[in-house]
Structures are given as structure tokens and as C-alpha cells.
Amino acid sequence: MDIKRSNLINGVVYAAATLGTIIGERRGMHDLVYVCKPLMMVVLGSWFFFNSRRFGDRFTLLIQAGLFFSLLGDLALMFDHVDQFYFLIGLGAFLIAQMCYTLGFAQNIADAGNSPGLLIGLFMSAIIITYGVIFGLDLLDHADETLLVPVGIYAVAITLMGVAAALRFGRTYLPSFIMVMAGALLFITSDSILATHRFVRVVDHASWSVLLTYAAAQYLIARGCLRHVLDPEEVRRRAALNT
Questions:
Q1: Residue 237 pLDDT greater than 80, yes or no
Q2: CA gyration radius for the chain?
Q3: Residue 30 near residue 79 (C-beta atoms within 8 A)
Q4: Choice between 198 and 98, residue whose per-residue pLDDT is larger
Q5: What is 11-49 written as a DSSP string?
Q6: What residues have CB less than 8 Å from 221, skipping those under 6 apart?
Q7: With 60 as the cut, is the pLDDT of residue 221 above it?
Q8: Fewest CB atoms less than 10 Å from the CB: which of 59, 64, 109, 236?
């Protein structure tokens, strides 16, 4: 068994790191958070890399970059309790991660070309955009003036990621679409809870729900993208393009 590629072993370690991070955050055990939180993206990024490197292309590189910048964002946010400046650094890192995911999904869409599922994708996109506009405007009414621009840009970025994920409908394999779409929605949910808790009102469950939805989102995005990469039809398509 190749431990680096094992779904079971890496999944268990990822789940354990997530649980450790949640416990550490809730109990103020910063040393536990410093160990477990970076481990989450290290494990997920390593697992994605070793499973996809044989089929490396622009799509896989963009998803890998998204996981890497998510790791940087996690590292910065670990020190958010020390100085708010770390929150801005983390926000910037996650902004780049969102852009990488969006570009990766867009690459997927471009490779597939026209799709009979376009109308469904557009309908889901309209719902995501509507939510993004309503929530974003409400958030900007409560955010600190110094954070208005970065928070607004980030809100646009994560909305675009959700739209790009929705437009993959009919352009990838259904299991891949479902996992990535669910991951994108959970990512939006996680950031919505975090933003509400930080800028609007106290959310009692934020200490665990933000991390839980974030961890599930990252795993589903990585797993769904890998499902697309490793699908036999996709492997044959890339082989035909390279001949």
C-alpha cells in the first residue's frame, strides 16, 4: 500500500487533524492548533499531488495551487488572536486560493466546450450570485471601514468560485460535479458564518462550524477534482490530445 496515495489513511489523518483543530480552537489550546491546522492542508495537498502527478496539467496545477495558498491562509489565521494584520494576510492568501480554484474550474469548462447542461448551470449560478450580492451588501454595512475593500473583493472572489463550480454541470462526470459543487457551497457557508460572527453578530456555533464546513469543503473540492482527473474517459481524452 502506498501511504502517500491511500484514500483511507490520508482521510483518517485529515479528519483527526480537523478534530484536533476544532478542539484546540474551542479550548484555547494554541499549541494543538499550531500542529493540527497546518497538517490539514499538508495532508490534503500531499494526497492530491501524489494521486494526480501522473496526469499533471493546468487544471491539476491550479487546484494544487489553491490547496497551497489555503495552507498559507490557515497559517496566517492561526495568529489572528495576536494581531488583526494576520487576518488580512490570511484573507489575501484565501483570495488567491479562490482565484486558483475558479481558474481551475474555468479550465475544466473550456476543455469540455459546449454542454446541454448550460441552463441548469446558469440557474444555479444565478442563485449563488443573488446570495452573494445580498449577503455581501449586508456584510459591508457592518464591516470596519479599513476592511471594506478587502472583504468586498473576497466576497466577489468566493461568489465567482461558486459560479465556476456550478457551470461545470454537464462538462464533467456527475460524481465530480456533485463533490466540487458541494465543496464550493460549504466553502461559501464557512466564510459566511465566519464573516457574520466577526462583523455582524455573535454566532454561538462559529467556534466549530466554521472549521467543520471549511474542512469538508476543501476535502470535497480536492476529492471531486481528483475524481475528474482520474476518470478513465478523461485519461483517454488527455492521452488522445498528447498523441
A1: no
A2: 18
A3: no
A4: 98
A5: HHHHHHHHHHHHHHHHHT-HHHHHHHHHHHHHHHHHHHH
A6: 63, 66, 101, 179, 180, 183, 184, 187
A7: yes
A8: 236
Instruction: Report how many domains make up the chain.
Output: 1
Q: In angstroms, rounded to a whole number, what is the distance separating the alpha carbons of residues 45 and 30?
A: 23
Asked if residue 115 is part of any domain, the answer here is yes
Terminal alpha carbon distance of the chain: 32
Per the structure, the complete domain to which residue 220 belongs is given by 7-241
90 part of a folded domain: yes
pLDDT tens for each residue of 131-189: 999 998 888 887 777 777 888 888 899 999 999 999 999 989 899 999 999 999 999 99
pLDDT in tens, 14-32: 999 999 999 999 998 989 9
**Residue-by-residue DSSP string for 125-153:** HHHHHHHHHHHHHHHHHHS-GGGHHHHHH
Q: Sort 5 into a burial class: Cβ within 10 Å, 0-12 / 13-18 / 19+.
A: middle
Residue 2 lies in a domain: no
**How many Å apart are CA 235 and CA 243, to the nearest integer?**
13
Task: Select from 125, 123, 117, 119 the least CA-distant residue to 188.
Answer: 125
CA distance 60 to 225: 8
Is 138 among the domain residues?
Answer: yes
Other CB atoms closer than 10 Å to residue 138's CB: what's the count? Answer: 14
Of the candidates 185, 165, 215, the one whose C-alpha atom is nearest the C-alpha of residue 63 is 165
Query: Which residue, among 42, 107, 39, has the nearest Cα to 68 in the 3D structure?
Result: 42
